[in-house]
Amino acid sequence: MLRAPAADSNKDVILEVLRKFATSGKKVFEIASGTGQHVAHFAKALEDVTFQPSEVNGRSLHSIVAYLDHNQFQNVRIPLFIDVAKRFDQWALPADFGPHMVDIVLSINMLHICSQTAVDGLFESADQLLNETTGKLITYGPYSEDGFISPQSNIAFHASLKNQDPEYGLKDIKYLERLPIASSHMTFQLVTPGYQTVNQRKGHKDNKDKQTSLIIPYRLITQISCRYLSLHTHFSGRMDVPNVPRRY
Known about the structure:
Mean pLDDT: 78
Helix content: 25-40%
Low-confidence stretches: 189-228, 232-242
Number of strands: 12
Protein name: Methyltransferase type 12 domain-containing protein
InterPro entries: DUF938, SAM-dependent_MTases_sf
CATH superfamily: Vaccinia Virus protein VP39
Order of helices and strands: HEHEEHEEHEEHEHHEEEE
Family: Belongs to the UPF0585 family.
Pfam family, one: DUF938
Oligomer: single chain
Number of helices: 7
CATH topology: Rossmann fold
CATH architecture: 3-Layer(aba) Sandwich
Radius of gyration: 17 Å
Organism: Caenorhabditis remanei (Caenorhabditis vulgaris)
């Protein structure tokens, strides 16, 4: 089983958000599942939620299977080989994880180390997979806001990624909002650091006149909507940036 220190450090932060949305009976499709640490952690905590991991890297796929074998989960499917840069109609999917049958599409630390085609593919596939009224796309990773990157460690990280590949680097929230699929099918809302605010789609039965907020004990900026939620992470202190392999 492969182990990534970053996954250990952020898995609980992401789990706190999933608890809000991945309620009993929900289905979560994870794009770029990596080592399998995240899905193993989430599946153990959310036993009534069904998870479908996926990867494009063969070594990572083997690692995910090893985590599943070790834990003997009943709520995690065998990982799929999914290349998000390929057209959605080329994906081989289980019958119950087909178009508009998924409650949450989850992608962790992918957007800053993948091709532009994969960025587009993530949003387009999410639009195809998600329930049309209540589905959510959740991404986690470092982002820029209106071209501004903070703190200094994120600036250095962005520069290092760009040196490795011009298509790498922190994606800007405003840029993601302007993607054709995102602009026509998804709404974005910037809220204050440290808070998570959930806005339900108008007319949904869970709509409340008063917004609800959850204080998260981490330095987070969240982008939340009825279709898209992005956890914007800030690295603190010094960060050593090794060469990062392309995800897609």
